[in-house]
Amino acid sequence: MKFRMLMAILAAPLFLLAQPETEVFVFDLDMAAKSITNPKNISNNPGYDNQPSFVTDSTLVFAYSVHGQPDILFYELTSGYSIRLTDTPGGEYSPTPTPDESSFSFIRLDPDGKQLLYKLGKDKKAEPLHNTLVIGYHAWINHDELLAFVLGEPSTLVKVNTTDGSHKTLDSNIGRSLHKHPKSGKMLYISKSNSDWTINSWDPKRGTIETVTKTLAEQEDFCIHPNGILLMGMGDQLYYSQHGQWKPLANVGAFGIKNISRLAVSPNGKRLALVGELQ
To answer: Which of 94, 121, 184, 214 is deepest in the core (most CB within 10 A)?
Structure first.
């Protein structure tokens, strides 16, 4: 039912300065066997294609370059069906399904430089979720609250209440990856406060911050498998971490891919979306 609601809406991040030519690839993922297979380039498009986020086990949204301008594309893996969800003078980034799965939120960068976080409403119109914060990336905590990467020097981790507009800074000098842990409910992000970057967790119930593990050297993109395992890439190598140690999972160079960046895993944990460059 929720998916039908989302499809009804669909049918009716940010700073592109010298962005690399990237593609979005989807693999079958088997964490028990520690393998990825059956790669598919679902963007297959010149320009900036990035920031994938799964809606269901077989559908996802991502930023898709159209004449050098990013819009949001919806893609169905089984059929290969796709549809552009946005078409504006500005650019849209970082599409993220809302907690009730009935819509999605995204960043819009307008031609005049204004950059805000929006949500697609039931009338298919974009509604700003906050009118002043310049947000680059975000992850939902619950129906009303989210964590945001707010642009600035340094960047800050901010908890935002989308109902009353209140917000609170939790940390500074952070990375762009923000994720909700599927088991603990804690929010994970990357801290760049020290020379050794770390993945930290913030507990919404207690308000405490703890270190989870170090990142791979100067890498700031990771995702969390439904079983709680962390995934991260560096170069053409994909790694996983379960108990604080990073171990190799797969080399995507064999598939003609290099420079892994964004990652996303399907809700059932059986598919991996990966952003990289063609060799």
So the answer is: 94
